[in-house]
């Protein structure tokens, strides 16, 4: 029996911090307590002075994502490796519909792409797009298979029009699937783009202005209204504006079940980045916003308006990015999984904005609960998978693309000094990252089925 004991660490759950030992036998947590004894052959880790966290779950990654302008730099192998080096143990990526195939079959094709390549455990959100038809039976099949969520874009060519969103929300209610939305109003963006083109404002420096705050706000307003009418929970991905966060708060206060996430880049970078040389490095949708938005998003985390902190990891190399020099087309997306925990611990917990318990809730427990992975994932508890991230709160690191492991080769957080860094990542009792070294031998990540909530 393979046994690993993590001793003397400050074990964090969303309820509090306890100085206890954690024992993992054959990949599962079997004991939590003081002075757990070890047998000959057991692997013992001394975590004195360190935080012992449930493995981080990044519920928004795009590994091996194709677009008309090319594939992401990270595939499942390099993406999951990079994430592991940042303390992530599970991620949720996306499956796109395949023409002529039912949704479940499309999902299985994507699952096959990840299989044998992922170093981490994973789950998939099923995308539902405007051009692909779907039926109630499609959704029932997905739910039976263990899928917990459907992803809808309100922008891009894949967007779902409002009549189909309503139809989907009604079916999602019946099948207990959570619909998660990329919220940007496409008509508003189209009209801004037309205007910007007329004025010859096409450079990267116009990226944020051409996809304005109002686009996210209008879309969130519309989605909240539809969800209210149908009385179904919804989840908004990568919220970038303070106004959208306030709309969510108001809806929650009125009793609506609305959930959401924000990402480190919206908390820590602003649209000024687009004016820098090689502003393409920072292009993603929705775009970066203002310092005022950052304040309101942190407030949203302090008040629990958001449930998750995620990355929208969608990595391209600088070379790929620089092939385009326009705010209207190009490669949107940035790398992020590896820096999720260091940035949110350092800027959130060490800087006194949120507590360590809140961080664990946003990075592990809430994601697991919302997407049906709890209590197998997201918590340090007897019977849960032995997924553990050990973080040294004193370790200082200056983030640089050169030292990170994403195939992007760069980070939009270049030069930021963080205090607090993961030292060990353990997936189901196996150490896969230790003190700067990725040590997993083989990609042994498993697809994790959601349990009904
Ligand atoms: O720019 C981004 N965010 N690219 C990934 C696709 C998406 O919109 O989430
Ligand atoms: Zn995304």
Give an overview in words.
Helix 7 runs parallel beside helix 8 and helix 8 runs parallel beside helix 10. The radius of gyration is 21 Å and the shape is globular. By secondary structure, the chain is of the alpha/beta class. Strands 1, 2, 3, 4, 5, 14, 15, 16 and 17 form a nine-stranded mixed β-sheet that branches. Strands 6-7-8-9-10-11-12-13 form an eight-stranded parallel β-sheet. The protein has two domains: 85 residues, Urease, subunit C, domain 1; 316 residues, TIM Barrel, CATH 3.20.20. It is built from 13 helices and 17 strands. The structure holds N-(aminocarbonyl)-beta-alanine (URP) and zinc ion.
Distance between the termini: 32 Å
Q: What is the CATH homology-level superfamily of the largest domain?
A: Metal-dependent hydrolases
Strand content: 15-25%
**SS content category:** alpha/beta
Helix fraction bin: 25-40%
Summed up, the helix count is 13
What order do the helices and strands follow?
EEEEEEHEHEHEHEHHHEHEHHEHHHEEEE
Number of strands: 17
Global Rg: 21 Å
What's the story with the biggest beta sheet? 9 strands, mixed
Name the CATH class of the largest domain: Alpha Beta
Mean pLDDT score: 97
């Amino acid at each position: 029996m393979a046994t690993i004991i993590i001793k003397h660490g400050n074990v964090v759950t969303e309820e509090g911090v306890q100085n206890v030992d954690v024992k993992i036998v054959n990949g599962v947590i079997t004991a939590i307590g003081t002075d757990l004894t070890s047998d000959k052959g057991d692997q013992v880790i001394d975590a004195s002075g360190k935080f012992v966290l449930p493995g981080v779950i990044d519920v928004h990654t795009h590994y091996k994502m194709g677009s008309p302008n090319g594939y992401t730099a990270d595939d499942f192998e390099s993406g999951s490796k990079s994430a592991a080096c940042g303390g992530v143990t599970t991620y949720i990526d996306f499956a796109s519909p395949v023409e002529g195939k039912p949704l479940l079959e499309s999902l299985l094709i994507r699952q096959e792409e990840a299989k044998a390549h992922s170093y981490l455990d994973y789950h998939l959100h099923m995308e539902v797009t405007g051009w692909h038809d779907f039926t109630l039976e499609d959704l029932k099949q997905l739910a039976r298979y263990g899928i917990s969520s459907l992803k809808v874009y309100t922008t891009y060519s894949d967007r779902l029009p409002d009549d189909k969103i309503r139809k989907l929300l009604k079916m999602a209610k019946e099948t207990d699937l959570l619909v998660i939305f990329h919220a940007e109003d496409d008509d508003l963006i189209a009209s801004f783009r037309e205007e910007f083109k007329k004025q010859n404002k096409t450079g990267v420096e116009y990226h944020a202005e051409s996809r304005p705050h109002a686009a996210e706000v209008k879309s969130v307003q519309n989605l909240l209204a539809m969800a209210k009418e149908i009385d179904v929970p919804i989840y908004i991905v990568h919220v970038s504006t303070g106004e959208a966060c306030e709309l969510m708060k108001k809806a929650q206060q009125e009793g609506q079940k609305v959930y959401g996430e924000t990402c480190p880049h919206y908390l820590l970078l602003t649209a000024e980045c687009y004016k820098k040389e090689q502003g393409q490095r920072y292009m993603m949708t929705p775009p970066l916003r203002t310092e005022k938005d950052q304040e309101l998003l942190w407030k949203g985390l302090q008040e629990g308006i958001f449930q998750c902190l995620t990355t929208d990891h969608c990595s391209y190399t600088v070379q790929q990015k620089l092939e385009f020099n326009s705010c209207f087309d190009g490669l949107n997306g940035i790398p992020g999984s590896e820096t999720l925990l260091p940035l949110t611990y350092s800027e959130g917990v060490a800087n006194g904005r949120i507590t360590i318990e809140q961080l664990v809730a946003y990075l592990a427990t809430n994601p697991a609960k919302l997407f049906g992975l709890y209590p197998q994932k997201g918590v340090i508890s007897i019977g849960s998978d032995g997924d553990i991230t050990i973080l040294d709160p004193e370790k200082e690191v200056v983030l640089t693309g050169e030292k990170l492991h994403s195939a992007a080769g760069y980070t939009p957080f270049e030069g930021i000094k963080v205090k607090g860094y993961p030292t060990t990542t353990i997936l189901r009792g196996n150490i896969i990252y230790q003190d700067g070294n990725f040590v997993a031998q083989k990609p042994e990540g498993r697809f994790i089925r959601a349990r009904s909530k």
